[in-house]
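Handoff note, outgoing to incoming analyst
You'll be picking up this chain. Sequence as last confirmed:
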Amino acid sequence: MENLDLTILRALRDWRGAGRHALMATVVRTWGSSPRPVGSIMGLCETGAVAGSVSGGCVEDDLAARYTRADAPDALRPAPGGAPRLLKYGVTADKAHRFGLPCGGTLELLLEFDPDAALLAELVRALEAGRLMRRSVYLADGRATLAPAEAPAAPGIDGQRLVNIFGPGYRMLIIGAGPMSEYLAGMALSCGFAVTVCDPREPYRDAWPVAGVRVLAGMPDDAVAAFAPDRRSCVVALTHDPKLDDLALLQALDSQAFYVGAIGSRRNHAARLRRMMEHFARTRAELARLRGPAGLPIGSKTPPEIAVSIMAEVLAVKNGVPLPPEADVANAGGPG
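Most recent structure output, in case you need it:
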């Protein structure tokens, strides 16, 4: 699965490029529980085609009905001067239930009518090239602008404009093409990561079964260098072979990767740290962010269960969820 924002933006670009009317909806505020976070986007074509979501589904159905039916009593139409509209759902518990929101939750959307096709195409090109972009929409007239962004930031809206940061998709580099890597790659793809697998061992590469994954030969440390991990990248070593894992992990620790982890027992991980300190002059502080054994302690023993535990930890770190000490496999025991 591709980065969801990019998929939605491509759909909007294509609809507008074909001369069709389209609506871009962005979640700008939530109160209480909400199925989708602030900054989530959705595209809606005049034909009724939908890309993305802003809720669990019922809000999308209501938006589509109001946008595509000119005879609807509460039809959605552009404000004078092309200004976008703010629209709330779920103000009351009854409405929250009707629109599929948790009881008492409230969702506010900014609706942009017929976003500029050329600007959408420019944004898609920038994201496909791996650039982080800031898109600003002015509330008075719907005018949108694009500019490079230095770092990810939370979306925000004030009295004048909505600012949303769009970035290239998250990436995962897996060292080793064994069975556990197959399960982890499939989960990462379903979570929207672009996945690369590196393994210099030809039999493992030749047997790789997961479609949609880039498979590389060569030594893993060279693969990490070429991969150039950034803040939206993670590196996971799964070979159990120090000759393949160690140098790749050191290369990843010198990068901006948000997650660097390696499989192995607690004893194996302790030996790994000793090797890195003794042979590569690394300090314990420099190795502190190496997660090992990788994964959350869910009692996993089989390759698919261990892959679940690793993917859960990667997502927790990606989403900024603080993990208590007991959620560290090194402290609680777990995949070995």
